[in-house]
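User: Can you help me understand a structure? I only have the sequence.
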Amino acid sequence: MSEVARPLAGKVALVTGASSGIGEATAVALAEAGAAVAIGARRKDRLDALASRLRDGGSTVLQLDLDVTDEQACADAVRTTREELGGLDVLVNNAGVMLLGTIVGADPEDWRRMLGTNVLGLMYMTHAAIEGMVEQGSGDIVNMSSVAGRTARKGAGVYNASKWAVNAFSESLRQEVTGQGVRISLVEPGAVATELRDHITQPEAKAAAEQMYTSMRSLQSEDIARAVVYVVSQPPHVAVNEVLVRPTDQER
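Assistant: Let's start by predicting it. Here is the structure, written out as C-alpha cells:
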C-alpha cells in the first residue's frame, strides 16, 4: 500500500472507549491508515477480539485495561503507550456515556457517570498526554463531542452540559497549545447506530431515543472513524478544529 493510502505510517495513536462502536471503528481506521494503535477500555474480552483482528491485518497493537474515570489509570495508559510503542502522536478521547433523560425526576447517579466519563475522563487523558506533545512540538488530540455540544434540547440536559464542557475545554486548550504545533480537534456526531442508547435508564427517554434513531438512516461508526482519520491526516500547517457529522435525515 502506498504512503498516500497509509498517511499515518510511523505514527502512534491511543483510542479510549475502543471496545465497541465509534472507538472500535476508529482504532481499525487508524490502523488501516498505518498507525500503531493502543486500544483502551474496560471490557477485556472485546479488546482481545479487536486486538486479534488488528494483528491479523498486520498492525501493531497494545491493549490497555483503562477506566478513564481513574486519573492514575489514564496517566499509566499514556506512559505505557509511550514506553511500549515508542511515542504518542494521536490521542482520540472517545470514551463516553449518553444517559439521556429529564432533569426533573432524574437519578443524579446518571449525572455523575456522564460528567465523570465524558468530562473528567477526557480531561484526565488530555492532562496525561499534552505535556509530552508540547515537548515534541507535534501531536493531535481529537475529542469526541456531539451535536448535543452545540444544540441544547429538553430531555438531554446533563448530556448537553457534558458535551458543551468538552467543546469549551477543547477550544481553550487549542488556543493554549496550537502555537506549539499541537492540534486540538472536535468531532461532533449526530445520531450514530451504537450501543450508547442501550444504557439510558429513564424508560421514556430510552423509548424516545429508539424512536428517533429508527426514524432515520443513522450514521454508522465507520462514518465517524473516517472523519477522525481525515482530521489527523492533514499536513502539519492545517488544523481541522471542528467536524460536525449528521445523518442526512437529521434536522437538528
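Now, to help you interpret it: The chain has one domain: 12-242. The chain has a mean pLDDT of 94. Let me know which part you'd like to focus on.
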